[in-house]
Amino acid sequence: ESHFLEHYFEYKIDSMGNEIVPHDSIKKKELFYKNAGIEIVDLGEGIVEMNLQTKTYIQYVKLLPKYYQDYWYLIKDAENIAPDAVLVISWRRLGNLLARHEAYVKTYPTKKEFFCRLQDDYKFLQYAFLFGLDNTPISYDDVHLDNDVKKEWERFIKTYPNSPTTPFAKEMLQQKKFDDLEHMYNKLTKFQETSNYPLLKACPAKK
Fold first, then answer.
1. pLDDT of residue 125
2. Does this model's pTM top 0.70?
3. What is the C-alpha to C-alpha distance for residues 19 and 106, in angstroms, rounded to an integer?
4. In terms of Cα–Cα distance, which of 72, 79, 67, 65 is closest to 105?
5. Reduced to 3 states, what is the DSSP secondary structure of residue 201?
6. 183 contacts 163 by C-beta, under 8 angstroms
7. Higher pLDDT, 128 or 12
8. Strands (E), 1-130
9. What average pLDDT score do residues 185-204 get?
């Protein structure tokens, strides 16, 4: 079905960018996928992919051990949260997702294999939470911190005082300007590369 996905938007938008009614054959194909529990997801920049609907997975995930269920929900909730470098979830939800990753370590301290699987997502979440994304910055004028970001950092610090992310959030709140954060970026990078924190330790396959 690669051809269908590659030309998906051509069935719905003309060369002038106007929406058009897709051919009946396309409608039938979309209905077939929907009935089969498959959804077509727009990832941005004209890229789409097919995914099994979450409800299709859940009926099977519920049969798995709790540690695997929690791992699976972390993976799913971290998927496609920033297409086109735009954060599509709230700062509060981003903070909670980061905290849930850290809570997984405490709840299942022996599941080191899963820590390795979560590592890349965790690193990205830390960076996004502290520095924002290209199209969702933490400051829109390089001087004043976005109010939602400020509130979330303050809430996160208060709620998760022992989080390894908290010292960085505290230091970010002390910044006077946000146009040059390379020193903070480098500091977090070094921490992620050298820390013994379970979600950051070098994994056997990545050494």
1. 97
2. yes
3. 49
4. 67
5. coil
6. no
7. 128
8. 38-44, 47-52
9. 93
What span, in angstroms and rounded, lies between the C-alpha atoms of 153 and 159?
10
One DSSP character per residue, 67-102 reads: HHHHHHHHHHHTTTSSGGG---S-HHHHHHHHHHHH
**pLDDT tens for each residue of 47-83:** 777 665 666 677 777 888 999 999 999 999 998 899 8
Across the chain, what does the average pLDDT equal?
88
Strand partners, 39: 51
Q: Could you give the 3-state DSSP secondary structure of residue 10?
A: helix
Give me the residue label for tokens 């970026």: 185
- Per-residue b or e along 126-140, where b marks 16 or more CB atoms closer than 10 Å to that residue's CB: bebbbbbbeebebbe
Q: Quick check: 169 and 151 in contact, CB under 8 A? A: no
Q: Which pair of tokens denotes residue 152?
A: 């979330």
Tokens of 198: 């379970």
Q: What is the pLDDT of residue 66?
A: 94
Residue linked to tokens 């990078």: 189
